[in-house]
Amino acid sequence: MDLANYQCSGLFDEMFTQNGECRAHYQVFEKLLKKTAPRKLKQLQFSANKTQMSMGMTFNVYDNDQGLEKILHLDIIPRIIPKSEWLQLEAGLKQRVNALNHFIQDIYNEQAILKDGIVPEDLITNSKDFLAPCIGLTPPKGIWCHITGTDLIKDKSGEYFVLEDNLRCPSGVSYMLESREIIKRAFPDILDKTGVMPVSNYPVRLLQMLQNLSNKEKPVVGVLTPGIYNSAYYEHSYLALQMGVELVTGEDLVVQNNKVYMQTTHGYQQIDVIYRRIDDTFLDPNIFNPNSLLGVPGIFEAYKAGNIALANAPGTGVADDKAVYAYVPDIIKYYLNQEPILNNVPTYLCRRPDERQYVLDNIAELVIKETNAAGGYGMLIGPKSTPEEHEKFKKLILSNPNNYIAQPTLSLSTVPTLTENTIECRHVDLRPYILYGEEIDVVPGALTRVALKKGSLVVNSSQGGGSKDTWVLYK
């Protein structure tokens, strides 16, 4: 494939400098690309698409008029990260997760950070994700955020910024694992030649982390799913299978004497640790949403009694709020007495009158986000929107300023991506996965999400984005 016409002027490209020179960590792959005919690349891409569908690597899109199931399109050109860059990311992610865990423990117990005025008290107490039943709780081993999927972007200067913290039920790790297997088949020798760190042991690491939450020698672990119609059901079943544990729904579980049991063909078996993939408020209809048909009546009391461990812990979502995100640098300084290794994207809180006015005056240049929305919804990208949409969001902000934040429009870094006719640059973000067990462990890989539409900054799968395999190098 001829890369002579590849252009991404004015942006930070992961593979090429502004002068068109291939970066050192991509040079082995560049040689492979140059000697591979365009027709062969298209065949490899077609095979990758077919493999995804045959493996069941799909997700549900409920408002998609072309059918529910779609593959998360895997572009066969990887994103490659050198070791020096990864080590900085790793240190910053460990620092961030450590501080956020301190924060969650504090706000459900002493609330020192609120009393000291570092984080506004009403920001927490008025959050729909602050769960009053969790007040006074300390989860097993003092760990709240067992699995985190932090979203990062890289700007024009090549600096990483944290875009958001996903502390509730971060998804996508199964696509990271299966994508690696597909890319290995497409380019069987190149990973070894390039020196790529493996990610295949993630299920083992995940299981060890979950088992660590119990004091039993051989704890019984299960994955709790909302069921087959959930958008991430493929991932739930995949992870349960890879860990060799049971995949259960709320109907499979029952609480007796403050202990949780699952129904088996041999009768009831006590379960000790649950990796839950349902939202907090659906977890226990006795405590949270009484209309929930997904949860398990009585499971929260069993949790409080110490007879079941839940990952992530109920209540963790309060630190996943986009307004709380703006205070994470202060949270790091408060609990760890350290400067943040990874910076936030500059953020304007519409709850503050002066920042709100700035947002209203400059809405055409900013990205507006609902504090509790996800998946690319509840968002306005000012430069890509119409004056009518600007006015609509101004009214929304004025009607409920606490519900909105704003950020400058950053030009996400790009990676060469295979299109119908050639290779073009497309914007990407990065979601590494962090496990918090006996220690904080960052998996040496990530889900790279890519905006498949030319010029688009929206990488979410539900909004038409795709993915790339992410290679972290030994050197």
UniProtKB/TrEMBL annotation:
It comes from the Bacteria. InterPro entries: ATP-dep_Glu-Cys_Ligase-2 (IPR051680), CP_ATPgrasp_2 (IPR025841), UCP005522 (IPR016450). SUPFAM superfamilies: Glutathione synthetase ATP-binding domain-like. Coiled coil: none annotated. Transmembrane segments: none annotated. It holds the Pfam family CP_ATPgrasp_2. Residues 78-451 form the Circularly permuted ATP-grasp type domain. PANTHER family: BLR5612 PROTEIN (PTHR34595), SLL1039 PROTEIN (PTHR34595:SF7). This is Circularly permuted type 2 ATP-grasp protein. It comes from Echinicola arenosa. The lineage of its organism: Bacteria, Pseudomonadati, Bacteroidota, Cytophagia, Cytophagales.
